[in-house]
Amino acid sequence: MSLLVLRPLLVRNQRFSQLSMLRGLSSLPQPVRTYATAQRKSASTTSLSASTDRTDVSTDVRPMGERVKENTKTASYLGIILVGVGVTATLFYYTFRELFSSNSPNNIYTEALDRVKNENPVKDALGAPIKGFGEESRRGRRTHVAHTSYIRDGVQYIRMQFYVQGIRNKATVHLEKKMNESGDYEYRYLFVQLDYYPHTTVIIEDNRLQQDIPKAGSALEPIL
């Protein structure tokens, strides 16, 4: 009788023990799952690293000869560009010197024309106002001023000729300049020759005698 009474209690205790054991097992850490997750993360990291390495590899699979030809062409284009820049800079330099340098033919012509216009004998002979012009071109334009630069005894000279016209008559202007020790041009002579008879000459400046005397004196020194 006592066994029959205790049997249900024993069965209940046994079931309770089994449930407690299962609960304890479920609360334990799962090393197997963690290890598998770590393996997957490591594999994905390795895959990303490999893909990054593959992107760093050059994709240029052209033949070596073709690449050399392409580099040569690029170098040729660069050389042409540099030559063009050099030529342009040279043109700008000479243009600037021609327009703004006091020793340029254009400025020499402008300064001489101003002196001729302000000379009273010239105004009386030609009649004001007076205008100046150069040689006549094929198209009938008088823009070119004839000039010649030369070196004599190591000294730079420039000789120029242009024309002036007033309301009554015309004339031809002749000038020559010599470069001094300071690098500036100074007049040897400047005169205006009238085109009508008797072709009178108006001398505005003539320094040839003063400039040539030192040469004559130095040539006579060894003889004396």
First-residue to last-residue Cα separation? 173 Å
Structural class, by secondary structure, is alpha+beta
Largest sheet: 6 strands, antiparallel
Number of strand segments:
8
Shape field: rod-shaped
CATH superfamily of the domain at 105-220: Mitochondrial import inner membrane translocase subunit Tim21
- Under the CATH scheme, the architecture of the domain at 105-220 is Roll
Rg, alpha carbons: 52 Å
Residues in helix, %: 40-55%
Indicate the proportion of strand residues. 15-25%
Indicate the mean pLDDT.
76
> Number of helical runs?
6
CATH topology of the domain at 105-220: Nuclear Transport Factor 2, Chain: A
Order of helices and strands: HHHHHEEEEEEEEH
**The CATH top-level class label of the domain at 105-220:** Alpha Beta
Unreliable residue runs: 31-36, 219-224
